[in-house]
Design a protein that fits this description.
By secondary structure, the chain is an all-alpha fold. It has 8 helices and no strands.
Length: 193
């Protein structure tokens, strides 16, 4: 099932309406679709590096709006639909572990998990199911998704084709390091001030 979806997504990157496909994949990946938008973003940026920032912004905006759909599924339809989605993706164990820290660390959980290749739908559906503030969910989603997509676009804009293989092999490591540096910097600022 994953291979045909992946192949379809890759075909979209070369089409004239690829930006709409990028927005669509970014939107639906936040609640249902298993393929991350990076598979469209990477070839689209490599094809036209001058559009890197615009494409990252499209991914971010569509992903956050799609995150609202995931949030609504968790908030209103968790028992009928949300649980089934998370079960399908074998994410219920992660869902239960999120429950423990979400009240205290919800915003950080959204920022950190949303910036990594962990399926964002887990975070969006859980945020709604846990009744996390929609305003703070949105703020955290904008931060995390822009970190994720602008990092990928920035590396591609700077280094071009040679970075593609590197990113695809080490996306989890790169985004995790970025998040560690970000959180470390915030903690350092709080300690120093």
């Amino acid at each position: 099932m994953i291979r045909p979806l992946y192949d379809w997504t890759m075909r979209q990157a070369g089409r004239r309406n690829a930006v709409w496909a990028l927005a669509g994949v970014s939107f639906i990946e936040s609640s249902l679709f298993p393929i991350p938008p990076d598979v469209l973003l990477i070839p689209m940026v490599l094809a036209n590096r001058h559009r890197a920032w615009t494409l990252a912004a499209v991914c971010t905006l569509a992903s956050v709006i799609g995150g609202w759909l995931g949030y609504a599924i968790g908030y209103y339809l968790f028992e009928t639909l949300g649980r089934q989605i998370l079960t399908f993706y074998h994410a219920m164990d992660h869902y239960e572990s999120l429950r423990a820290g979400f009240d205290q660390w919800g915003m950080w959980i959204i920022i950190i998990k949303g910036a990594t290749p962990i399926p964002f739908k887990l975070v969006t559906i859980a945020s709604g199911a846990f009744k996390f503030s929609l305003l703070w969910f949105t703020v955290a989603a904008v931060i995390s998704r822009s970190m994720r997509f602008f990092l990928v676009a920035g590396l591609l804009w700077t280094f071009g084709e040679p970075i593609r293989a590197f990113i695809e092999r080490r996306l989890t490591l790169l985004t995790s390091l970025f998040v560690i540096l970000l959180v470390g910097g915030i903690v350092a600022v709080k300690v120093l001030l």
